[in-house]
Amino acid sequence: MGAWGIGLCAIRELGEEKLFAAGTFDLNLALNARVVSRIEFRCADSKCHNFCHIDKTTVAVGAAEKTVLSGGACPKYEISSIASKKIPKEAPNALEERMALLENFREAGTGDREVGVPYVGVLNGYLPWMVTFLSEIGFRVKVLRSDSKSLAGGEERCFSFDSCAPAKIAHAVADADVDTLVFPKFLNLHDRDGHGGRTCPMEQGMADMADQALKARGRNIRFVKPLLNLRDGLLNRRLIGRLRGLARELGVDDRHVKTAARRAAKAQQDYEHALAEIGRRTLAYGRGQGIPVVAVIGSLHVIYDRAVNASIPDLLRQNGVLSLPMDCYPIPDDIPELPRIVWEDANRALRVALSARNCGEVFPLFLSSFGCGPASFIEHFFRFLMEGYPHTALESDGHGGFAGFVTRIQAFLHTVRQHDGRPVPAESSRLRLFDTLERPPLASQKDSKFVVFTMGDQTAPIMAAVYRSWGYDAIPAIPTSAVSLAAGRRDCSGKECLAYQLIWGSFRKYLDDNPPEKRTVLLQISGRGACRTCNFSMKDQISIENMGLSDRVSLRHVAAELECPGLVSRFYTGTLVWNLLNQLAAYHRPYESEPGEVDRIYDDYCSDLIRILEKPSGRGFSGIISKMGSVGRIVSGSIEQNQGSALFEQLVRRASTQFAAMRKCRTDQNSLRTIFLTGDIYLRLDDFGSDAIIRRLNARGIRVIVEPLWVLAEYLVEERSAELFSLPQGTFMNAMAKVLLPKSRKHFYEMAQEQNPWLPTFDVPEMLKKAKPIIDRHPRGEAPITVGSVIHHWDKAVSDGIVIVGPWGCGPALIAESLLKHQRQIPTLFVYNDGSPLDERKLNGFVFRLRRQEPKTATETGR
After folding, report:
1. CA-to-CA separations, 516 to 372, 512, 547, 698, in angstroms, rounded
2. Is domain 669-708+762-863 annotated with CATH 3.40.50.11900?
3. In the CATH hierarchy, which fold is given to the domain comprising 442-557?
4. Cα–Cα nearest to 658, from 704, 594, 602
5. What are phi and psi of 55, to 5 degrees?
């Protein structure tokens, strides 16, 4: 079939006339060919680590001899470049020119004290700024760079082996011969051609990861990790304050900080102007010479770091095109801002790709690192925006050998050379998906059917019940299962986090089984960049469009509804009570007198809870109060939250008593052990997503204390974060939420603790305090609260061990793992889920370890 395809391509490119006019090949000559000699050698190209075995064969046909190389796809010995157009020597080389710009910043300053700066992560774009500032306040700056051994060295040092290559490389680069290392945490970045954006969790967390890892190896390097926000410019007041703090932490007078900051901003500005000029010259040269330009887009620490980029930028030039990295590309003013792409490098990457498409002579190549969380979604958006225009996406794991990329690049360039050079702007309908998601008044969607995202067995039913209590037609999506996961994966690459695959799978299965006859609204969680939840609804919209349902199905983010004061409060109360029921079931299943006893009790109480929540109630008074501004909405919300309060209290008391009675029936409690289950909010609450880890532990005689959903809710309020549920961020509303949420939680938990004293007392500020010596409050998200929760609960002797669950490839989970592995006094099991069955041997080994030690928790009958 390959030969047939080659023939068809030859006819299309050369035309039938030329082929018929060409001479014929005498196949009899092949019969006279003979092998004269044959030897084998191994390629030892220093730029490639594939070490291809090459067969060198000398073939004679008559008097002529020909050497043939074979054995694989070695780019040095086997990939033919005869047909490739050579790039003129005088042609611009953006990568080399950029490297030349940075030579002045390799070492700087003449001070007596030296500090190291790792050229990793965000510093790939801000080295001139950082080096200039430090040298201006009196330091001699040593820039630390990666080399061919950095990835291997990083893998030895990194304590979460599934971390992305850039994070591992940062570990190796940081392990240098310096006493002090300035390794900033950049939270937000500016963009000379756009509105900027956030950095990803791994970029924010790699400094803490490397710091703890090197301490564990006995290295005495002082890490200085300032929190820096550059989105509002390089001279914004808050940034200057942070830089003053950095100077003081380094032990120098901060009087010269403002002057140093101005000079650093000027150095960065000059550098960025020079990059843009490189881009303009490259584009002009390519246009003038008829040479295609390939815009290399993605994270800068992947594009430029030779320890991870597989020499792909070099391969492009070797194959006759000009490569132009995205930070050199000048983005025109008419390119949309794409406000829903919150990460700065991803936002710029997609805007460069759109500009290339509008140009018609530039073609985007998206380069990412294996295991990159943001890239798992950005690649979808890239392909969606580029459909119908030559483009490609490549992924490198950093383990050398660009031979595997050669044919893919050549295939990509084949499509590039087929393009006629005309602009092909993206369709406006596709661009609209990247605008802020519309949020029409809820009342305008009264005739729609609301389908709630699935998380755990009761979150969706609870939210649907609350919406029904307001008169809306709301139902939960399909429960998670192997069938729904398979449905979701039809629209996924497999790189997305398991939580997303499960959520979309439940939506997709519902839509497949119930073709919408009326307007359907999918209620989905949202985010601001702390994790990949910020991409969920966009990916949903793309899938809905591909299904041909965009005229009937829309997305709506879960948040407070002005028309329904107290909706979120009532949902919170419902989930609070459900979390208690879930904790009671997970703890008491080892006490069952017969299989299924706990599940029957649990299901009955959950059904009662739903009936209470969905019951309509009079809202005349609360509706009037809700129209009286923020205070009115708070009072109205409090009224709504307390609707049916007596029924909630009765349910909690009855459930607490009934479950507690089960403990009195078992006398041999010494064999039981207790674990505390934390980690990813989705997987620890979803039975299928975690592969029934709670039940598996229960079956091994382990009582499980599940960290409830509300811990994350109180954490998000504490940090004024809009992640997941868009909880209040405004000063007044947030302050009230900080009071009301813990008050409600304490009310119900104290009630349950009367019969179940094993239920732990949670304190989010205390958890963050416990985490602070290891990780400060950034990256905001699950990493700090997971670290703090584990240490807090271990110190409180809540359990005999800890189990932490997370989706494979989740940045916050990997950060937490990397930091907690140094807490060797805590028996901890890290479990990553990707939809595959759990390794039973790991569970058996962990349980065996717990049984070999004395129980840390009380085992009395009342406990």
Report:
1. 35, 9, 12, 41
2. yes
3. Rossmann fold (3.40.50)
4. 602
5. -95, 125
What is the rounded distance in angstroms from the CA atom of residue 404 to the CA atom of residue 50? 9
Secondary structure, 3-state, 474-514 = EEECCCCCHHHHHHHHCCCCCCCCHHHHHHHHHHHHHHHHC
Residue 531 DSSP one-character state: S
- Could you read off the pLDDT of 265-317 as tens digits, one per residue? 999 999 999 999 999 999 999 999 999 999 999 999 999 998 899 889 989 99
CA 659-661-664 angle, to 5 degrees, is 130
Mean pLDDT, the chain, whole residue set: 91
Measured CA to CA, the distance from residue 749 to residue 746 in angstroms comes to 5
Cβ atoms of residues 682 and 455 within 8 Å: yes
| pLDDT value at 636 more than 70 | no
Residue 112, pLDDT score: 86
d(CA 410, CA 422): 21
Of the candidates 370, 364, 410, the one whose C-alpha atom is nearest the C-alpha of residue 384 is 364
Helix or strand holding residue 35 (H, E): strand 34-42
| Contact (CB, 8 A) for 781 and 530 | yes
Residues 6+ apart with CB under 8 A from 377: 496, 532, 535, 538, 539
* Interatomic CA distance for residues 685 and 286, integer angstroms: 55
- For the purposes of burial, counting CB atoms within 10 Å of the CB of 667, is it exposed (0-12), middle (13-18) or buried (19 or more)? exposed
Give pLDDT tens digits for 771-829: 999 999 999 999 999 999 999 999 999 999 999 999 999 999 999 999 999 999 999 99
282-425: which CATH topology?
Rossmann fold (3.40.50)
Tokens 């519902």 map to which residue? Answer: 510
Q: How far apart are CA 94 and CA 325, in angstroms?
A: 7
Q: What angle do CA 214, 218, 219 make, to 5 degrees?
A: 55
469, 613 contact by CB (below 8 A): yes
Angle at 152 between CA 150 and CA 154, to 5 degrees: 65
> Which pair of tokens denotes residue 37?
């000699």
Alpha helices in 165-256 (DSSP H): 165-174, 201-216, 237-249
Say which DSSP state 194 is in: S
Cis preceding linkage at 565, omega within 30: no
CA distance 339 to 350: 11
C-alpha span between 678 and 700 (Å, rounded): 19
pLDDT tens profile 180-219: 999 999 999 999 999 999 999 999 999 999 999 999 999 9
The whole-angstrom separation of Cα 509 and Cα 622 is: 38
Whole-number Å distance between alpha carbons of 29 and 62: 8
Q: How far apart are CA 187 and CA 201, in angstroms?
A: 9
The Cα angle at residue 133 between residues 127 and 139, in degrees rounded to 5: 105
Task: State what percent of residues in the chain have pLDDT above 70.
Answer: 92
Q: Domain residues of the chain, as ranges?
A: 2-70, 94-270, 282-425, 442-557, 563-666+710-760, 669-708+762-863
- Residue 264 contacts residue 136 (beta carbons within 8 Å): yes
Q: Which residues contact 132 (CB under 8 A, 6 or more apart)?
A: 105, 108, 260, 263, 264, 267, 268
Write out the two tokens for 27.
């196949």
pLDDT in tens, 325-383: 999 999 999 999 999 999 999 999 999 999 999 999 999 999 999 999 999 999 999 99
d(CA 317, CA 340) in angstroms, rounded, equals 34
Q: Which two tokens stand for residue 724?
A: 């997941």
Predicted TM-score (pTM) of the model is 0.90
C-alpha 570/C-alpha 420 separation (Å) is: 59
Helices and strands: H and E segment counts in the chain: 32, 23
